[in-house]
Amino acid sequence: MTVPEWAIAGLTALGVCLAAVRIRLAVRAAWARGRKMRRWEIGASKTIGSREVQEDEYGIRETEDGLMAVMADGMGKQFGGKIASRTVVEVFLEVFGDPTAFYNPQYSFRKGFQSANREVLKKLDDQQGWASAAVIMIKDRRLYYAAVGNVKAAVYRNHELVPVTSGHTISVLARQRYEEGKLTRQEAASLLDHHRLYNYVGQDGFRDIEFFDTPISLYGGEYVVLMTDGIYEGVRWKELEDCLESGGKCQDMAFEMVELLNRSEEEDKDNGAVVVVKVG
Known about the structure:
Blueprint: H1 3-37, E1 40-47, E2 56-62, E3 67-76, H2 80-95, H3 105-123, E4 129-139, E5 142-148, E6 152-157, E7 160-163, H4 170-179, H5 185-189, E8 210-211, E9 216-217, E10 223-227, H6 229-234, H7 237-245, H8 250-263, E11 272-279
Antiparallel strand pairs: 1-11, 2-3, 3-4, 4-5, 5-8, 5-9, 6-7, 6-10, 10-11
């Protein structure tokens, strides 16, 4: 075999080795991406209840950088509530379509709510529709959240479902004012049954957003739940906890929570929607 032939053979062998290395690295990268995307399990469901229009909407975005889920509960005239809630969800899905959104959650939440407020006002004049909304973000086993109105975010661990958002209802405001010494006990007590919203997406001068103080550490095995008031007011809290305690698939849990509302004896059933995320 001549020298040039040896050189060609050597280069061929080297090329084969390099190709094998590249394939191995590509397989590892794909496996790592798949593993990263399986850091959580997700289930979601909703029901129209006994209403004529479904005004609850949710959206979920999964990326290599993290998970974002948003839920909106619309209200308004005719289809105004439906348009408002859908607009909120579409805006947040767009905001978190940018990978950098996962690296500054408070800024991204604020941008999402402010943009959604402008879009709702642009589409719906004269108070035709507005929406409550809550958004969560999970990144590196940390939970970030923000909310406007009365959509609730909660975490289930140690056999207990604990709300992490307070909401913007008159009763919550009365409680806060009492703790600040601005209302007497009697004045606050008279307002505790008032669930009317004082803050929502779709109003001039909108600015009040409930943010996380510090991200909540997640250790694996917890469930993060987003739900509209149709669920948490139409179903007993203990029933929701029992459903999560069952340890089934998240999609089955979401279906069961919705069915609990559908089977309830309440005649005037509100729309209900729920998103369940299990942290891996």
